[in-house]
Write a structure and sequence with these properties.
By secondary structure, the protein is α/β, with parallel strands linked by helices. The chain has twelve helices and 18 strands. The two termini are about 15 Å apart. InterPro entries: ADH-like_C (IPR013149), ADH-like_N (IPR013154), ADH_Zn_CS (IPR002328), GroES-like_sf (IPR011032), L-Threonine_3-DHase (IPR004627), NAD(P)-bd_dom_sf (IPR036291), Zn_alcohol_dh (IPR050129).
């Protein structure tokens, strides 16, 4: 089969012929239809310091996918050939305290699909049945391909109650855009999205942001005045990993405000801890998705009319993967999809 492989310990990815994966007793084999390009894939392609530490070559990359089940292992009973599926990209040990307590998203021994084991940028993918999500309700195939990052957005956005709340989202990348759509759909009063990229801010307006703010020109305080907020924002969703973004969020949160932080900083940085303490601000770190409560919420949100179509801005054949990765690396749009059925 064809697969995108990190074949050498140097920048680049290569489309190679590799063996079709074998299916174990508790696994399913998926014929991949679409995949989404993630920031993790860009790191692996560029072979930066993180990738050099995290990845052993050769490796089939990718973890965002949708496809059809073509074979099931002998112990699999709840998934059938022909099911349309996506998959949870975090494979857990099942034996640690958190796994045994049902908190699998907190497993300390998590292995990442397409990072710690062969991934989804291939014509076929073998995955444990316990990591498979069957789409019981029809979902657009491109949207189903990005359920993994959509889950990050849902996990972050729904960490705290949103009904009637004023929400500040820092970072209008694909996950920030999806979080804005979720927050508005879930009943937030105002959703303000900040970034410095006008193209992404335009996408934020398309998904329902009340205000899409270029912080290179306008301050968060100005947005508060425009909206008539007298006490600050109730909930912050930090999606950028940018130190100034978090500092600005903390400075503009109401007393007792809550922050869900998904953005991953590249290095340590200082924040105003006295303000956090005196304002009784809660900060919650987010990684991945709750298995599988977040997945259930994702499906229900889409069934209820949530529209993620504006977030997908690039579609390419897998044969044109170089152009697709270049598009994603420019950072001007939303999600980029690779078509493996073409």
């Amino acid at each position: 089969m064809k697969a995108l492989v990190k074949d050498k310990a140097e920048p680049g990815l290569w489309l190679r012929d590799v063996p079709e994966p074998a299916v174990g007793p508790g696994e399913v084999l998926v014929r991949v239809l679409r995949t989404g390009i993630c920031g993790t894939d860009l790191h692996i392609r560029s072979w930066d310091g993180w990738a050099q530490q995290a990845v052993r070559t050769p490796l089939v990359v990718g973890h965002e996918f949708v496809g059809d089940v073509v074979e099931v292992g002998r112990d699999v009973t709840e998934i059938a050939v022909g099911d349309r599926v996506s998959g949870e990209g975090h494979l857990v040990c099942g034996k640690c305290r958190n796994c045994l307590a049902g908190r699998r998203h907190l497993c300390r021994a998590t292995v990442g699909l397409g990072v710690g084991r062969d991934g989804a940028f291939a014509e076929y993918l073998a995955l444990p049945a316990s990591n498979v999500w069957v789409h019981r309700v029809e979902v657009d195939v491109d949207v189903a391909a990005i359920f993994d990052p959509f889950g990050n957005a849902v996990h972050t956005a729904l960490s705290f109650p949103l009904v009637g709340e004023d929400v500040l989202i820092t970072g209008a990348g694909p996950i920030g855009l999806m979080a804005a759509a979720v927050a508005k759909h879930a009943g937030a009063r105002h959703v303000v999205v900040t970034d410095v990229n006008e193209q992404r801010l335009a996408l934020a307006r398309k998904v329902g942001a009340t205000v899409a703010l270029n912080v290179a020109h306008t301050s968060i305080e100005d947005a508060q005045r425009e909206l008539g907020l007298r006490e600050g924002f109730d909930v912050g969703l930090e999606m950028s990993g940018n130190p100034e973004a978090l500092r600005g969020m903390i400075a503009n949160l109401t007393h007792g405000g809550k922050i869900a932080m998904l953005g991953l900083p590249s290095q340590e940085f200082a924040v105003d801890w006295a303000r956090i303490v005196m304002s009784m601000i809660t900060i919650k770190g987010i990684y991945g998705r709750e298995m599988f409560e977040t997945w259930y919420a994702m499906s229900v949100l889409l069934e209820g009319g949530l529209d993620l179509a504006p977030v997908i801005t690039g579609r390419y054949s897998h044969l044109d993967f170089e152009a697709a990765f270049d598009d994603a690396a420019r950072g001007h749009g939303g999600k980029v999809i690779l078509d493996w059925a073409a």
